[in-house]
Each structure stands twice: as structure tokens, then as C-alpha cells.
User: Fold these one by one.
Assistant:
Number 1:
Amino acid sequence: MATILEPGTGQPGRTNEVAPLLPDVKNPVLAPHWEAATRGRLAIRFCPGCNAPQWPPRYNCLACHGFDFQWREVADRGQLFTYFIARKALHPSLAHEVPYATAAVVLPIGVKMLGRLEGVELRSIRIGMPLRARYVRRSPEVTLIYWAPDTDGDA
Ligand SMILES: [Zn+2]
């Protein structure tokens, strides 16, 4: 069975209550990303040696094989690259939310990022639509990054 990230808060429910599926924001691999999200910012790891973005973070830079990294805040807008619609919950805590869409968003810096797509009817989703990050606080430590149509229209 695949490993499921432990919820960042609370204890698993014993009866009808199921702890939400939240990321481990203390994991050092992604901690700066989640810390930035609590401030409403989108942070991506970069290689200072060749300036290549590293997303998702990897063991070393795929472009120059360097091992040094730094985190930079980037524009939190992008375009819908592709998406899928979950009609069966991937985790019991999501059962009341199906059907929902998960987007692969391509950022202006070229990396693709997965996240919940909201604020648009499922039948109105269009490849290439401009999106903007929406920061959803789930606890003092955990802020999730969802994506929604960019109504400013200048993504
Ligand atoms: Zn590099």
C-alpha cells in the first residue's frame, strides 16, 4: 500500500471523523515552500549555479548536477496545463468534496505544479485558462495552495 502523508494536525478519527489529509510542512525538503504559503507567497527552489528552477525539489540539479539550492518567491500565476477530475475520494477526508478538479499549472518560469482547482464549474474548465494561486489556511502551520481562475486577466 502506498504511503499516505500523515495529517499535519490532529489525530486520526476513530469513528466518523477523519483527520484531513495535509502535507508535512516540517519536512525540510519542502518546509520553505509551506512557510512562504503561510505568508501568501509562492516559493520555488532554484539552483544558484545555473539558475534552473527545481520543482519538485530533487536530490540535485537536473541541469548542472549541482547540490546547492536556494528558495525564491515567484509570481503566483500560471496557466492550466492539464487537469483531472476526482470522482472518488483519494482519501476519506475528501469524500464530501468529490467531484473536484486537480490542476497541473504551468508557471511563467516553466515549472508545473499540482494543486486543487476551484472557483470554476467543472464543465467550464479550459486548458490554457489563466489561473492564480489561492492560499487556504487550514491551521496556524498549514496553508494549502489552491488554484482559481485569474480574474485580472493578465496572467
Ligand atoms: Zn543547476
Number 2:
Amino acid sequence: MKKIQDAKIDDSTLRDGLQMPGIRAPSPEDRFIIAEILNDIGIDRMELFGTWYDVDRKTAQLLLDAGFKSRVAIWVRANTADIDEALKLNGIKEVGISHPISKIHLDYKLRISEEEAFNRISGAVKYATDHGLRSFYHAEDCTRADWTFEKKIIQAVIEAGAECYRICDTVGASLSAHTSDLIPLERSVPDRIKAINKLFGDKIELEFHGHDDLGNAVTNTLTALNNGATWASTTMLGIGERSGNAETEKVIMNLYYHYNVNRYKIERLTECCQKISRFCDIKIPNNKAIVGPNVFTHQSGIHSDGVIKHPETYELYPPEKVGNIRRLFIGSYSGKNVILHKLKELIKEEGKSKSFDENDGRVKGLIDYIQNNLFGSGARHSPLTEGEFKMIVRMFALI
Ligand SMILES: [Zn+2]
């Protein structure tokens, strides 16, 4: 049985991530900057577009030329033309071959039979193998596919030379629960992985690609890794189709926190997400786990007081671990201690050496003004900016 400590990350930010609706497509140079950070973080494999447009080909070549430690896989459809196009890239070693296997996709999207799908998939994987490429097969929508058909497909891609079978929870239908009257095998993450491994475990690696339509992508990915999958297919910030994918940073931090996986350079996670936010013109939600600006921001009196005394009271780990920063806000429900703390910091910053007396009438006046006149009265709703706080401190002649 594979251990979760040996899990590998296949980051698809530069493929599935860029399929996010409304995203600004970054230039090849900007994509390269993102890839450099991903490589430095220690991502095991990156997935890229490579075949269709100039920007994608240029990006793929830049990454392949860089000689990253991270493996680079080019995502193609299950046809020889796509593979031929990918083969034009210098230094290409690996492709991810995508084709759906659910009846919904075969009947309504492609309008082909299971037999035709079988031939396309096994043919494409064999073609890649015959041309010296490593490959993983991306079984689109397999969490809604027929299990009997899926078993045939897995057997076929093994015989054709695929190294890895990617379970694609394309519309986020899976659940981290066991099979029951309500949950069929296809949708049960732990049971289907065990079932596949029981039949084919030593012949092919498993990867889980989870979408977040029901908000279960990260949990499902961790369940997959805990039950015998080797790879997690994820994107930074969870960017991707519709509600997106499992977040790379969340999976990595769960591996770090719960399973002592220390091999990823987690201190660059926030910077990586900020770059993606800038290049792709998407806002990081304030409360986004790990990398959001609120994760280490404290405003309410009880929380700020705890953090000032001992950060671990309300922080799972120090912000600098993931390249984030701690902030203390003064706003509604801020207590006396945080105002005093901010005041001391400001006095230090301003280089004033005068001793600080909490019983000074001006200090008492400042606290009363902020707590009662501004927020308590309801006159002010949003927290004070650093500049506003400084102005008020000046008003009380404390700096
Ligand atoms: Zn996807």
C-alpha cells in the first residue's frame, strides 16, 4: 500500500487553471515565471498545453528548455495529430492523453460508441509509447462512467504503455465516503481507488484530479492519496473550470501539517499565488486559506489579545512559513490591548525614544476616541488604515 507521505503533486495551473472562465491569459514569459516558482517549490510534474496555439507552444518550449527538476507533461487529446504536434517540441518526454469515458460524454458530446472510445484511447496511448513518450491517461468524467467499461479501459492503457491512470472527477461528483445504497462505487473515492489498485495496483500509478462543484475537491484528493493514489492533480488557488480544482497549496499544507511532508518549499506558496493573481487578473479572496490576506489578520479584541500574547493561540502555524504576513487591524470590537500594541509599534517606527505610559491621559483619550467615538457609536464601520491610525495618534500628540 502506498503511503501518503510519498504523494506527488502534478500541478495543472498552466493547463486546467488557464481554462478558468474570465481569466486573463498570461504571456509565455509570465507563465514561465509561474513555472519557475512551481519548480522551486518542488512540484513533481507540471501539466501544460502544447499543441494548439503559438503562446502554448512557446510556453512549452521555454519550460522544456529550462531543464527543470519538475517533469513537464504536454496535455493532448487522444489522437495522433495532437501527439505529432507535441512531438515537434524539443526535449518533450511526456504527454497527458485526455478522452472521456462516461456515457453522458460519449453519447451527447462526442456521439461515439464505447468501442470507438476504446480504440481512440488505446490507440493514442500506444502511439505515444511507440514514439518514446511517457504518458498518463486522463480519464475524463470517469467518476460517472460505467465501472465495467472503465476496467477494460484501464487494462487497455496499461497494455498500451501508460504509466499512470488519472481519475478525473470532472464535475466534482465524488465523495470521500464508502459505497452504500446511495453512493455507487464510481463516486466513492476510497473504495474505487482500492478496487482499481486491487485489480491493477502494481501495473499502473493512480492520480486523482478533483473538481470543486460540491466543495469536496481537497478532501477527495487527500482521501485518494490516503487510499493508494500516488499523484494529486491540483492547481494553485484552485483556478480552473467552473468552481475550479483542488488547490495545490491546500494539498501541500495538509501533507505538511498532518503527515510531516517537508520536501516542498512552502515559504513560496503565497508569492506564487500573488504572481498568478497579478498575471491572470484574478483577485485572491481575503479569506482564502493559507495565502489570503486575512489568514493571519486579527481584528476582534479577544483574538488580537491572544495573538499579541502568544501567536499560536489563533494561528495554526506562523505566517512566514508560507510567505504570508501577520496583520493586526483596529476596527469594530478591537480591544484596548491591540490599540496599545499598535501604538507602541508606531512610536518605535517613528524613532521616538520617549518612554511609554499606559496611564498617560493622551493614551486613554486615544483608546476612548477609537473605541467609543469611532466604532462604538456606529459612525465608522471599516477598520482603520495604517495612515488613519497614524493621523489619530498625531491628533493626540503621541508622535
Ligand atoms: Zn479538470
Number 3:
Amino acid sequence: MNQNYIYILRCSDNTLYTGWTTDIKKRIEAHNNGTGSKYTRARRPVELMYSEEFDNKQDAQRREYKIKQMTRQEKELLIAGYNTSANKVTTLYDTLFAHYGDLHWWPGQTPYEIIVGAILTQNTNWSNVEKAIANFGDNLTPEFVANIDPAELIDIIRPAGFFNQKALYLKAVTSWYADYGYDVGTVQKQPLDELRPELLKVKGVGQETADSILLYAFSLPTFVVDAYTQRLCERYPLTAGKDYSSIKEHFETQLPKSAEVYNHCHALIVINAKEYCKKKPLCDGCPLASKCRRYGI
Ligand code: SF4
């Protein structure tokens, strides 16, 4: 599927030109060699000032129409905002925080429960994880999981789905934790840049799981990127890239390096995604509506 883009060019006479394309680079080359449009042919060279990316032509063209209706001043504000997108993460965080406050959101009662939850939540929803966690009763400890027969563990975690795999993953991550004597303080004493790669080598632990464990179970400052974060980045938009690492780096370089702030920020994104920024967004009432370029699209 082709990506679709809308773009704004600044022409040599300082006027602005808005267009739609599926290939920005080629399109700008065309404008600059005189085959792009009649308007830009007489106003070369042109410079790309702004762009937005869309999954489909219809949304891109709707946005193009909206931008074309804007006044010159509104377009300049859009361009200025785009070029200072480095500040957008803090603006987003401040806006969500002002609306929802401190959510005191923590995905578990104990560090080990958080580790288990981070594994069990893969490819399922949280209510299934809760059912599996409830099945442990008073036995949700690393010692119990380390010693239990795999078949029994599978039965306990069955409500979370993919139970055969997840039982193996739980055994593996528990064995990793055993190397630290199941002690939170001992884990916390290790440098984060050694712990993270180490956890990523554990069977069943990908980037989101590793960061969830390190942030929520051990209060270490590593930002968690999930599907809600990726969706918001694309819609708002944040020029954070598309892959996990670049989005994580984008948030981490914009926010103060603090486990508390990363925790709040992620929790705020999650609650806003559940209330408003759903698959089909409910933009009316969303606290980000006045700043989000997808509002009303
Ligand atoms: S305004 Fe709409 S698209 Fe933008 S963040 Fe809010 S719900 Fe999502």
C-alpha cells in the first residue's frame, strides 16, 4: 500500500503551496524542475516546509483541502509548530496531565506480579491477564513459578492464551530474576544499559516487555512504547519515526529522565487512547483536540 502525503512548499517569492503526493522526494524534484505545477514553475526553487503522512488517499486529500482553506497565518503557525516538534512531547504530556492528573497507575501489586503481567499480556487483553493472575491465589511468587511443574503452570495461566509459550517465558524470566536473588534492590543496582540487553535475551521478552518490566517492576527510567503510543505519534503527529527504538528515543530525549515521568506519560497515553483516541477516534472532548492535526478527520 502506498503512503500518502500532504506537503507545504515555500516558493521563491515566499508564497506557500500545498499539495498531495505518494512520493514527496520525487514530487519536490518535479516542482523544482518545472514539471510539478503551473504555480510553482514560475516560483522556483521551492523548499519543503511541512508534511503529514496518511495511510489512505481519502484522508490525505481531505487534509489537503483543510489546509488549503487556512489563512496564510494559520499555515505559518502549522509550519512553525512542525519545526519545533521537539517540544511537542512535553506539550502533550502537560496537556494530558492537566486533564487527567496523576493516575497512580501501576500494572500490579508487587514487582513480580508486574513481571508476570508483562509476559501474560502479550497478544491478549488485560482482563484475561487478571483472570490468570487471580488463578495464582497467594502463590504469585518467583519461588512458586520456578518450582512448579510446567503442566500445572499452563493450567494456571490458561485464561491469558498462548499458555504453552507463556509458561516457558515465565520460567525463563523467573530464572533471569533468580540470578539477582529475586531481589529488587539488587536488580536496581545494575546499570540500565546492561540490564535491558540482558532481559532482551530472555526467551519471550521483546522490547515492550523488557521496558515494562524495567520501568514498572524496578522503577528504572526506560520509556515503554506500545500500540497506543504508536497510534498517537502517527495521529498527533510526533515526528518520532515508526519503529519502537526511534519512538522510545524521541520520548526519552524530550522528557526528563525519570521513571516517574515515563510512567505517568505512558499511563496518560493509555487512558487517553481508551477514552478518546480509539481505533476510530472520538475527537470531540479529547484533551489533545486543539493541538492534534487529526482532529475531526
Ligand atoms: S484529537 Fe482525535 S485523533 Fe487526535 S489525539 Fe484526540 S482522539 Fe486522537
